[in-house]
């Protein structure tokens, strides 16, 4: 069966526990990740090390991965507020978990601080990151298209078709759409509204507690609307955050808490 996994954000123990739980529930599981593997949590390096061992998985990029790509490789897929400046992106995302990511690679705080004074010293930091990790981040696609569903990170306009041509094809020459795909967020009204696309869309990026009227008093769980499932259950952001895998065939989920223990979903 096919399992779509929400934003990991450097949370290695929840990822390990979730993969173990999926393995027990489905020995032939196929895994699809919605992006944002780095930042916020303390073990981004360990997360990518683990992801690189998976033979049954497909990955797309999130906005945090795109910024990391820009910082370590000088390139990004979608336009963002840094306007292509590596140093600006670096300083901006030290406020959003990049420091923890760099520390997970053994990069000292003094080296990180030096970039503020000498932006060209970013290259010294990059030398500590394994080439396999640089390649993994740089080669992440923007979307996965399956016959019954698609997986993207942030937002696909509810009034836009997602088929014939595919999302990936539509993004090739459209920077504004690429930005929306990685950085956009659905309104509560849009989650419930009819969609122009024909398949189910799986998304991460926006923590489900952003929609209190939909989540209610529950611990973070996937939110489902018309042809849409939102899977960022705030594993790295909330004390009661969870990492979620949603099974497309069974329409049910598995979740782990921040200690990596399976919890009732």
Describe the overall structure.
This protein is an alpha/beta fold and 265 residues long. It is built from twelve helices and eleven strands. The strands form two sheets. A six-stranded mixed β-sheet has the order 3-2-1-9-10-11, covered by helices on one side. Strands 4-5-6-8-7 form a five-stranded mixed β-sheet, with no helix packed on it. Strand 4 (144-145) and strand 5 form a beta hairpin. Helix 3 packs across helix 4. The radius of gyration is 18 Å and the shape is globular. The mean pLDDT is 96.
Element-level helix/strand string:
EHEHEHHHHHHEEHHHEHEEEEE
How would you classify the helix and strand content by structural class? Answer: alpha/beta
Rg (C-alpha, Å) = 18 Å
Q: Average the pLDDT over all residues and give the rounded result.
A: 96
Residue share in helix: 25-40%
Widest sheet: strand ordering: 3-2-1-9-10-11
Would you identify the regions where 5 or more consecutive residues have pLDDT less than 50? none
Name the quaternary structure.
single chain
Count of extended strands: 11
Distance between the termini: 18 Å
Query: Based on CA inertia axes, which overall geometry fits?
Result: globular
**Which percent band covers the strand fraction?**
5-15%
Give the count of helical stretches.
Answer: 12
Q: For the report, how would you describe the main beta sheet?
A: 6 strands, mixed
Question: What descriptors fit this protein?
Answer:
265 residues, six-stranded mixed beta sheet, alpha/beta, single chain, 11 strands
């Amino acid at each position: 069966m096919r399992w779509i996994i929400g934003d990991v954000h450097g949370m290695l123990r929840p990822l390990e526990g979730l993969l173990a739980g999926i393995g027990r529930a489905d020995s032939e599981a196929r895994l699809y990740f919605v992006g944002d593997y780095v930042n916020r949590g303390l073990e981004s390096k360990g997360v990518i090390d683990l992801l690189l061992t998976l033979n049954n998985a497909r990955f797309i990029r999130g906005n945090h991965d795109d910024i990391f790509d820009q910082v370590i490789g000088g390139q990004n897929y979608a336009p963002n507020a840094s306007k292509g400046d590596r140093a600006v992106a670096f300083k901006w995302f030290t406020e959003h978990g990049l420091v923890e990511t760099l520390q997970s690679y053994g990069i000292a705080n003094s080296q990180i601080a030096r970039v503020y004074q000498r932006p060209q010293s970013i290259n010294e930091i990059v030398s500590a990151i394994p080439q396999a990790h640089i390649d993994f981040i740089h080669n992440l696609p923007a979307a996965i298209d399956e016959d019954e569903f698609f997986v993207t990170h942030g937002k696909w306009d509810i009034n836009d078709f997602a088929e014939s041509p595919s999302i990936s094809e539509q993004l090739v020459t459209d920077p504004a759409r690429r930005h929306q795909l990685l950085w956009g967020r659905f309104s509560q009204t849009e989650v419930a509204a009819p969609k122009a696309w024909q398949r189910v869309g799986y998304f991460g990026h926006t923590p489900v507690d952003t929609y209190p009227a939909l989540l209610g008093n529950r611990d973070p769980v996937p939110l489902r609307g018309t042809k849409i499932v939102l899977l960022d259950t705030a594993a790295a952001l909330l004390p009661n955050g969870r990492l979620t895998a949603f099974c497309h065939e069974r329409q049910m989920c598995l979740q782990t808490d921040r200690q990596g223990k399976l919890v009732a979903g």
